[in-house]
Automatic annotation (TrEMBL):
Name of the gene this protein is made from: lutR_6
Protein name as it appears in the record: HTH-type transcriptional regulator LutR
Domain HTH gntR-type: from-to ranges: 17-85
Keyword annotations: DNA-binding, Transcription, Transcription regulation
Keyword Transcription tagged: yes
Pfam family of the protein (one): FCD
Keyword field contains Amino-acid biosynthesis: no
Lineage: Bacteria, Pseudomonadati, Pseudomonadota, Gammaproteobacteria, Chromatiales
PANTHER family given in the database record: GNTR FAMILY REGULATORY PROTEIN, TRANSCRIPTIONAL REGULATOR, GNTR FAMILY
Gene3D superfamilies membership: GntR ligand-binding domain-like (1.20.120.530), Winged helix-like DNA-binding domain superfamily/Winged helix DNA-binding domain (1.10.10.10)
Amino acid sequence: MDEMSFKDLTAVSVLARSMGSELAHQIGRCIATGHYAPGSLIEDESALVSRYGVSRTVVRDAVKVLVGKGLLEVRRGIGTRVKPREQWALFDLDVLAWQLSAQADPTMLLQLMEIRQLFEPQAAAWAAKRATASDIAEILSALEAMSADVANMELFLKADARFHRAVLRAAHNEYLFALSGIIYSSLLSIIRLHNPDVGNNRRIVSFHRDVHDAIAAGNEVDASLKMAFLIEDASSRIKASTALAS
């Protein structure tokens, strides 16, 4: 489960990249995985040209991309420095994906789960209030796929992502839907930290079914509570697996 898996879950088309964009991805991964630490200087333009075998224009284009995502700052006479993590565009899909190239970080994952706990229960409540018949059918379709694929972790994960994406879409708030990358990043990180078994996946399906049933019934309070319980259960499993590994 890596950056390409993340792009797959987000349903983002991976189009042919320009050389500048490709270099930005390579350097971005190096930053996200700690090869370039926050506060450190990356190589100068000439060194990057030599290292990657590209032109100065390509290097400048790549740096512009990373400056735009908050990872780098360029200081005349000093060089190009990696900015502190708190200044990164952490919700940016590329930045989330690059972080998946690093070793699984339980602290980062629990922080992602805290953010999910802030907005997904409310999204479920809005879905219960606003969902169309088509929205509910999509949520059910994802739920049925989860149930059918409990023994196949890759397919199960894709169906799980579809379920949460469908709930966000059913809330009919495009700004809320823009936060979906947080969900995909946390799902992939959970799998990297521990491998759920079939029995546990069936248990997870039952919690998702409770969310679907509440949304389909138009019960806003219950939908919010069921989603909050689902996320809290996942957080508890992460904490337990981290404690066992330490």
